[in-house]
Amino acid sequence: MTSSTALVCDTEAWKDLKGHVEDIKKTHLRDLMSDVNRCESMMLEFDGLLLDYSRQRATVETMDKLLNLAKDAQLTEKISRMFNGEHINSTENRSVLHVALRAPKDAVIKADGKNVVPEVWNVLDKIKEFSEKIRSGSWVGATGKPLKDVIAIGIGGSFLGPLFVHTALQTDPESVECAKGRQLRFLANIDPVDVARKINGLNPETTLVVVVSKTFTTAETMLNARTLREWITVALGASAVAKHMVAVSTNLALVEKFGIDPNNAFAFWDWVGGRYSVCSAVGVLPLSLQYGFSVVEKFLKGASSIDQHFQSTPFEKNIPVLLGLLSVWNVSFLGYPARAILPYSQALEKFAPHIQQVSMESNGKGVSIDGLPLPYETGEIDFGEPGTNGQHSFYQLIHQGRVIPCDFIGIVKSQQPVYLKGEVVSNHDELMSNFFAQPDALAYGKTPEQLQKENVSENLIPHKTFSGNRPSLSLLLPELSAYNVGQLLAIYEHRVAVQGFVWGINSFDQWGVELGKVLATQVRKQLHSSRTQGTTLEGFNYSTTTLLKRYLETSSEPQM
Ligand code: F6P
Question: Using DSSP, how many helices (H) and how many strands (E) does the chain show?
Answer without folding.
Answer: 24, 13
